[in-house]
Amino acid sequence: MVMNRILKKAASMLLAGACLFTLHAPGASAAEQPQPEWTQYSLIAHAMGGIDGVDYTNSLEAFKENYAKGQRVFEADFSLTEDGQLAARHDWLPYLAAKFQQDIPEEKLDAPLTMAEFKSYPILRKYTPLSMEDVAYLLKLYPDVYLVTDTKETDPKIVQQQFTLIRDAVNKVDPKIVDRIVPELYSPSMIAQVRSIIPFPNYIYSLYLSELEPEEITEYVKTHGIRVVAMPTERATPEFIAALKEAGAVAYVHSLNEPNEVKDYLDMGVNGVYTDFLTYSDIGLAPAPTASSEPGEVRQASYTATAAAAASAAQEPLEEEEAVDGNVLDTFIEMISEIFVPVESSDLQP
């Protein structure tokens, strides 16, 4: 009888394991899988969110300011530096240096900087540029934050280099943070390639570089277990959003900064939006769920779609156990400052 109980117990465990494998296997349809925990959040702070009316900074200060406003999912742009590292930078074109008031020598414009050079130019002369490793430390310090990566490249060689660097940064800082990194991937082939480099539990099928038709995308989502799709607003239609939902995926659109437009897309059925400047109170939603005491764990919290509730909640300070340790944050900022060494113009010659 004891043996029978043991066998029954083992059979039950094997059955449960088989069910779990089926649920999370890459080939399982999205409709059979639960939605990722991070999709509780309706807002994604684009390029770390805007600061002082400026977008695309991808800076430490933008992250801190928008975290304080209730954002918990942050998108960051990443570009390769001249010396093969990964910088939180949208691109290396001259317009961005002008926008950020960075006096980069003309011969260095329109080409990647080295990481040391990149770090030597404060954004708008006061905001701190970040490397991928810096962002990984932020994820470690803020256990309720998710990072969406926008690496922009589809060339397999560049993709391999970028995601190997992301993997190395994660392994160096804390392997657990991989559960809170959500890469934007731009094609079926890229999804397969990145899965072979890092088995991310979460990712977004991003359509802004895709020429596939909605029917093709929906079929791929259905047959490959895709659970989140992001797209420019012009690709979002009620029919497409409904078809994705039927296939088991939720949709995010980018980028919106007008509350009424956000409401229109939420009414259409999208799960959320990328934004530079909007907060939860701006769109009449309660602030996002707060952090638990353990990394990667997020308490469930329902949204209250009233501006009054949002405003009330926004005035409440974080509970003591949820607040980020100021000393730890100061230490991090000091660490950033130590590597933020000005480079003389003469040193920037090729």
Automatic annotation (TrEMBL):
Ordered alphabetically, the record's keywords are:
Signal
**Signal peptide position in this chain?**
1-30
Q: Where is the GP-PDE domain?
A: 58-277
Quote any Pfam family the record assigns: GDPD
Report the superkingdom from the record: Bacteria
Q: Which GO terms describe its biological process?
A: lipid metabolic process
Is Signal among the key words of this record?
yes
UniProt keyword Cell wall biogenesis/degradation present: no
- CDD domains assigned to the protein according to its UniProt record, in alphabetical order: PI-PLCc_GDPD_SF_unchar1 (cd08583)
GO molecular function, one example?
phosphoric diester hydrolase activity
Record-linked PANTHER family: GLYCEROPHOSPHORYL DIESTER PHOSPHODIESTERASE, GP-PDE DOMAIN-CONTAINING PROTEIN
Quote the protein name from its UniProt record: GP-PDE domain-containing protein
Source organism of this protein record: Paenibacillus mucilaginosus K02
Taxonomic lineage is: Bacteria, Bacillati, Bacillota, Bacilli, Bacillales
